[in-house]
Amino acid sequence: MKILHASAEYFPYIKMGGLADMLASLTKEQARTEEVYVALPLIAKLGKEPNWTGKEYRALLPEDAKEGTMAVTLLAKARFREAEESGVKLYFFDSELFSGLNSIYGQPEEHYRFAIFSYACYALSQILKVDAFHAHDWHTALSLSLQKNSPRSIPSLFTIHNLAYQGDHPFWMTGFLKEDPFCLITSPFDQDGKCNYMKAGLLSAGQITTVSPGYREETLREPNGFGLSYVLNKRKADYTGILNGIDPDEWNPEVDKRIFQTYNLQNWKVGKRKNKEGLYREIGRPNIPIDLPLIGLIGRLTYQKGFPTFLQAFLERRHLPHRYVVLGSGDMETENTFFHLSDTMPDVFYFYKGYNESLAHQIEAASDFFLMPSLFEPCGLNQMYSHVYGTIPIVSRVGGLRDTVDESIDIQFKTGIVFEPNDKSSLGYALERAKDLFVSPERDHVVKNMMNLDWTWTKRKLEYDRVYKKAIELLE
Ligand code: ADP
Ligand code: GLC
After folding, report:
1. Which of 84, 152, 395, 435 has its CA 20 to 30 A from that of 306?
2. Where in the sequence is the domain holding 150, given as residue range(s)?
3. Ligand of minimum distance to the alpha carbon of 354
4. Is the pTM of this model over 0.85?
5. Rounded to the nearest whole angstrom, what is the distance from the C-alpha of residue 72 to the centroid of ligand 2?
6. Is 184 left (phi over 0), alpha (psi -120 to 50) or beta?
């Protein structure tokens, strides 16, 4: 089967969060048995130079394109450049719309840009004559409405990675479309008076998936549907939750070249200790006592990730022996508070502002615990990375976190610490439990349970196969 994915992110070229990791690892697994293509924007600052094959496609105009529209004019000047990565063909959309960007999101014209990119992805699916089209999040959702209205419609899938971001904006901003190839005006894609790309994807896709069964359930009700739960309920029969997998070539303490000392289940204690020493040296805090529990936190500092609750709990439980290393950037107030703690409590708290892939691996390998106090979490990858690195996750009971971390009273099944509700006292109590677990003989069992978990795509890829099949049957 020939599958074309359309996405704004793909590791290691464009990564802002888990979407990049998820898609790179899923497509690598799919490429073992299928022909897999991925359409991506080409931005100025890529994480790595692609392995260009030299092939490119200029003929980007769909057969039914109407001359004279802005979209068509821009597409005529653009091209898809082919590259190869782990058996997957990548098609970078080389256009003036994206070429100057250092970062993929957050600019005011992003709705316009992603509309044109979606148009190009739809066109590419026709050029490559694929059997299935798979779009991810709102950035590429409009290509699904083109697929749906096309005389040559193909089976399609839409994966929701995060319903909090919907690409909604006032209708006048899409005035540039003139001919409105996406049927934005005539279709019910408005939501609270705004044009909503996510809704367009949900109404147009053959099948919808999201990245964990737990999050699927949560999005069928408000407030977790972010206003779109009524649409998801209408499409409930075509909506599946499939847990993300991870790439064992990238996240595996036995082969990880970014960490100070590789290790496995047999020697994790020594391995993690060496990594802790290495990390403390690296961040300029060599005097932090090595025997005290270290808690790692990594992530986008946004509302979703629940950092304010963490701060409250941290301040209330200052007496605990925990040390903290935090990596992330985002909300300025949170950043400033973290900087303040890092300056005033250097033996307890360290904050690195920014994006740093190597440091993320080093924190996973060095930490004893990994904290994810998310208010909602479609899947979350770091709790799974933590499992394979023998780092006990402390998570709120939401979405993919509750599907993957189990604080079972039966020690055979315990794979972390889970707290609910998400407030400072239950998080504080979870930090107390971490203190006890750190010195308890139970810790060895928990680490063994975690490091034996299989979070790879091997089985879960088959769940996507079933959904592709359903999408194909719909069109037969
Ligand atoms: P989300 O996609 O919501 O950000 P996930 O847990 O699915 O959350 O994935 C986040 C990914 O991005 C993980 O691989 C994490 O290590 C990485 N990441 C987040 N922030 C940073 C950062 N500042 N530096 C390095 N990696 C980061
Ligand atoms: C989103 C979600 C995260 C998920 C990732 C990959 O960014 O916030 O929970 O793991 O996508 O699917």
Report:
1. 435
2. 2-245+457-474
3. 1
4. yes
5. 33
6. alpha
Structure tokens at 398: 């939401």
Residue closest to 372 by CA, chosen among 18, 72, 47, 62: 18
Answer whether residue 287 is part of any domain.
yes
Tell me, in angstroms, the distance from the centre of ligand 1 to residue 236's CA.
Answer: 29
Residue 194 is part of a domain; what is its CATH number?
A: 3.40.50.2000
Q: Is 360 in the pocket of ligand 1 (CB under 6 A)?
A: yes
- Number of separate domains in the chain: 2
423 and 288, same structural domain? yes
Does residue 200 lie within any of the structural domains? yes
Q: How far is the CA of 244 from the centre of ligand 2 (A)?
A: 9
| Predicted confidence (pLDDT) per residue in 223-277, tens digit | 999 999 999 999 999 999 999 999 999 999 999 999 999 999 999 999 999 999 9
**Smallest-distance ligand from the CA of 243:** 2
Burial class (CB in 10 A: 0-12, 13-18, 19+), 57: middle
**Ligand 2 neighbourhood includes 246 CB (under 6 angstroms):** no
Q: Is residue 412 within 8 Å of 453, Cβ to Cβ?
A: no
